[in-house]
Fold this sequence. Notes:
The chain is α+β, with helices and mostly antiparallel strands. The protein has an eight-stranded mixed beta sheet with strand order 12-13-21-20-19-14-15-18, with helices on both faces. It has a seven-stranded mixed beta sheet with strand order 22-30-29-28-23-24-25, sandwiched between helices. Strands 4, 5, 9, 10 and 11 form a five-stranded antiparallel beta sheet that branches. α4 (179-188) packs parallel to α5, α5 crosses α7 and α9 (310-323) runs antiparallel to α10. The longest helix has 31 residues, at 518-548. The protein is globular, with a radius of gyration of 25 Å. The model is unreliable at 463-471 and 607-613 (pLDDT under 50).
Amino acid sequence: MRITKIKGEFRVKAIAGTHTVLIAMDCSETCRHGLMGFAIRREVIGENDASPKWLRSLKVFKSVVPDPQNELDPKGKPKRFSTWEHPIQSFLWGDYTAEPDTRYKFTIVPMYGAPGKLQPRPGIALQVHTEKEFDQGHGVWFNRGAIASQAFARQFGNREPSEPDNPESEETAWLSRGLLEACLRFINDTPAGYGLRVAAYEFTYKPILDALKNALDRGVDVRIVYHDTVKASGKEKGANEKAIKAAGLPKKIGRRQVLFPRSKTKIPHNKFIVQLKDGTEPIKLWTGSTNFTPSGFLGQTNVGHLIGDEETARMFLAYWEILKRDPDLETARTGATRLTPNPPSLIPANSTVRVFSPRPKSDLLKWYGNRIGDATGSVMFTAAFGVAKQLIPKLAEDCDYLRFLLMEKPPGDELKAELTKNRDCIISYGSVLGEMYTFKDGQPTARKRIKEFNLDKWFLKEEHYRSANEGFVFFIHTKFLLIDPLSDDPLICTGSANFSSNSLLQNDENMLLIRGDRRVADIYLTEFDRIFRHFYFRDIANEIEAERGDAQGPFLCETSQWTDSYFKPGAFKTRRREMFFTDPAKCWVEKAGTVSSTSDKARIRKAQALEVV
């Protein structure tokens, strides 16, 4: 949900996802002088024992608290500081501890005066209702991901998780943040007589395989297309086959085949499950970026997306039927393209369009690039395996909207120079807290250890880790692109597919193009902000630590000069502050609509004839 409140020369906008509430603040040029920051109070509405509290400040005024690291509370624990005394010096703030389907009241108070003698101005109060986990046909779950190290250490101690295969473990549940629970619920709630059709790439996570075996035992028609890791590895036993055997999943039950190895493709990269009512009627779909592995649910940043749309489920079932035959590349390309022709420049309003791979051409990259170029407000993009050359011109273009690029690794020198040559693109990248990437010939290679964080060490030791640091993803594993997510007509592109030529041409993949769903956009937007800003902090902290040996940075500015960077004409922070309050009616649709051609309209008619749109 979204809500905006104005009081005098201040205005506040809140955007609520499921677990995250993003709050943007703004004020006039006059009012920013003397502004020392914002105090924020949160109240849970409807809970008798939940009294309002001023939220925690991560930084303090040095003149008031010169040594915050050694300040202890009466119980001898590190002291927590309040935004009432040490306000937030930013025009953008996120509450990452919210619960789904919960009503909150936030009060944002501008603070003036001097450190230790702050004077509040009238606050702006607004009520926010976070989104339900599943509503209006969509459910979206993000795990905490590899960004959880410091918080995990505070909660459980600086160690690796003790029971990653136990869904009931407090540590596992904390890292999963509802993602594993939602996937297990999808499987476990499937009654006898129904069916489940699984397409899996990495298929080793015991809780998922056990749940599928239990479903099979209670009379669910379970059938699984999985990556044949014996043929892929050339070894006698592959990782998937070992896990399948340990779970007791049979190849056949009577004459019915249960397991369908997939070998005739470069990477069978899907991770979806279709639910069939009475074993024949597709009604729901689980998809997203999450591999069925411990690192998929607990380590990498991932998303699970549940869709209660029968047409989408039907299309994925038709795709699954193609894959179960283990088709060669050309046969798979023909089938995937027949089911999902290239979309038009302007997909229908309030629709979900499906795209399956492999495809005969990678021209969808041009489609994605054009949609980036169509944006008017902002673009938010996760690039797990780098940025395809077809997308760089649009991402690097100097124009009137901001681009936020979240990468797995820091860009090489050439790409960084291209993307950051103007004011419009800002990059954040995955990193272990306490490790720095080293570079060779302008490209990120190995990592240099600064500090030890055992959760990160566990994750790197998990099955994705390779010491050569090539070809595997440790941090940013989501694959989504948001076009004008703050507008009234956002576009969300999300699925298993990386935005790359190989993904389109060689792999089994799926992608959803969701237009006009503000609820879904709000969830993806708030989670993107959470991950982007966390890794941006990590990147800066690691650089400071490596250079000076002190990445604490715990102090606030003691004057209102902190606002200067937010009011400098044309500066990034200025444009980000303004971005949240632009006209939501303006969006990518206007540009995309002007370039829609006769061939686009013909494709729409063809797609409708195939019941794709």
